[in-house]
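Model the whole thing, not chain by chain.
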Amino acid sequence: MSARGRLAPLLPGIVVAVGVTTYVIVLLGVESQTGIAALLAAGAGAVLAAARFGVAARMGRAFGKRDNFLNLLVVLAIVVLTVFFYEDHFVLLMVATVIIYVIACLGLNLQFGYSGVLNFAGAAFFGVGCYTAAVLTKNTDVPHLVILVAGGLMAATVGSVLLLPVLRTRGHYSAVVTIAFGLLFKIFLEVNDTLGGPQGLRVDGMNVLGWEFNDNIEIGENFEASFYVNYVVVGLILLVLAFALVRRIERSWIGLNLDAVRLDETAASCFGINIMRWKITAFILGNFLIGLAGALYAMMLGFIAPTNFTFGDSLILVSIVLLGGIGNPWGLAVATTILIIVPEKLQAIQEYRFLLFAVMVILILLFRPEGLLPRPLRAYFPGWRPK
Amino acid sequence: MNAAAEPLFAATGLGKLFGGVVALDKLDLQVFPNQILGLIGPNGSGKTTFFNVATGIYPTSEGRVRFDGADITNFSPQAVYRSGISRTFQHSRLSLSLSIFDNIMIGNHMHLNQGLWFNLVTRKAFRRQFEENFEQARTLVKVFDPPLADLMFEAVEGFPMIDRRRIEICRALISRPKLLLLDEPSAGMTHEETSELMGDILEVKERLRDLTIIIIEHQMDVIERITDSCVVLNFGQKICEGTYQEVARDPQVQQAYLGIE
C-alpha cells in the first residue's frame, strides 16, 4: 500500500487532532470568564455529540491500529502549544504541571489500574520526590538529571517500607494503610525542622550541563522565551519515556500477570502466578514514577511545603485515574488536563474545586464506571493480525 | 486397569478440617496414568475441598499427597501448577474483562518468559514467543470450537457459558499438564452442550496422549460415558470405588447419593 493509502484512514484523526489543539490553544489564550465558560460548554457539547454519533469509537479503532501515530500527534500538539505560548509563564506552567501530573498518575495507574494495589498516598510519594530534590539540590553537587532519578528511587524505597502492611492486607484495609502513611508523612514533615518544618524548603532550579532552567531563554536581541519552556521540554521527554514504559508493561506478559492478579488472585495462584512478586513490582515501579514526577515538580516550583502533599492531593491523583478510565493511559492524560486546566482558567469554580471533583467522581462511578475513556482490550502489537 | 503401574496421583489419609467440621476424612484416592477418574457424591461431600487441598489452595490437616513420583503435600498453588497439575473451577473463574487469548495465556504462565528485560526491551524476541503461543492457543481452541479460534481477541464476557467452559479448559490445558482436575464442567449448561463438551474433552485427551483427568460431575450419564473408574464421597469419606457399573450397584451409594432406600 502507498503511504497515501495508509494515511487516508487516519485523515479524520489528524483533522480532529488539529481541531483539538486549536481548541486548547484558544481556551488557554482566552481571558474573559464568559468566553471560557462558553468554550468549555462548546467543548463538552462537541465531545458528547462525537460520542453520540459514534465518531469517537471509530477514531478509537483507527488509532488503535496505528497508535504510534497518535502518540506522535500528541507530542506534536504539545510542541505547537509550547511554541505558541513561548513567552507566557502562566500557560506554560500549567502545561508543565499537567505533564508532571500525568507522569505521576501513570505510576498510580500501574499500581491501581493494573495490579489492583490501592494507593491513597500518591501525594506523599510525590512529596518524597520533591523533598529529595530539595535536599539534594541544596546540600550536594549531584547532577540534576541524576536527582530526578534519585527522587524516583527514594519514593520507591520509602514505598517498600509500606510493602509488608499493604501486601498482608486486602482491599479496603490496604487502602487504609496507605491513607495512614499519607497522613503520617505530612505530620512528619511539619515537625521536622531539618526539612523546613511547616514553612517548607526552597529548591534550586534545574541546571543541566550549565544550562540554567530558571533563566528565560534568550536568543539574539529580540527573542526571549519563558524559562518554563525548559521544564515543558524535560517533562515531555520524561512523559514519553514513562508512557512507553507503561505501554510496554501493559502489552507484555507482565501486564497480563498484573491483570490476572487484580482480577482473581486465587485463579492466578493456580496458574503459577506469584501474587506478591507482581504486586511488589507494580508498587515499586509506580512509586518510582510518582517520585520522579515529584522531583521535577519541586525544581520547577522552586519552593515546597508540607501543605502541598495533603490527603486531598492524593485523592486528586486517585480521582484522575478513576475519571480517565482505570488502566487507560490516554484516559488519565485527558482527565489530568481537564482537572488541572479547567479550575485554573475558570476562576469562578476555583474555590469549589474539590466539591466539583467529588461530584464528578460520583457521577462517573454512577453512570460510566469504566471512566471517560474505557480501557481497550490488550493488543500486544497494535495492528497485528493472525496469519 | 494395569494394576502393576504406579499411580500418577495418590492421596493417602488426606484430611481437612474447617474448625470442627470434617470436610475430608482420611481420604485415600489414586489415579493411574491416562485414566479418567470420576469423583462423585452429594453436595457438600468434600469433592471441591479435595481439589482445593490437592492444588494447594487449602493446607492439608493430615495425610500426604504424591504426584508423579514426588511428595507435593502442602505445596503452594504455584508449585502444584509447576509440577504439572492444572484445574478448572466450579464457578467459572475466567477474567471476564480480558480477551480469550489473555485468559488462555494466564494458564501458560510457566512457559512464558517473565523477565522484565525480555518483556520490555527485547520486543522482537517477545513477539516471536507471542506468535508461537498464539498459534498454540488457536490450535487448542480449534479442537473445541473452530469459530471461537477466530475470536481470540474478544472479551470473554461476551460469550455464553459453553464457550466460557471451553476457554477455561483450554486455559488449563495450554501448559500441557499431566493431570487435569475438572470441577463440574457441565454446571450451567444444557444436556446437549454437556455432551458436546465431553466429546471435545475426550478428543483433546486423545490428541495430547499423556493426560490424566479427575472429573467432578453430577450428571451420571457423563460419568458413565467418560470415566474409567469412580470414587464416591459422602461426608468427606470415600464410601465406594470401582467402575461406574460397580459403583451404581452399590447399596451404600444408592442410599447416600441417589436417595434410594
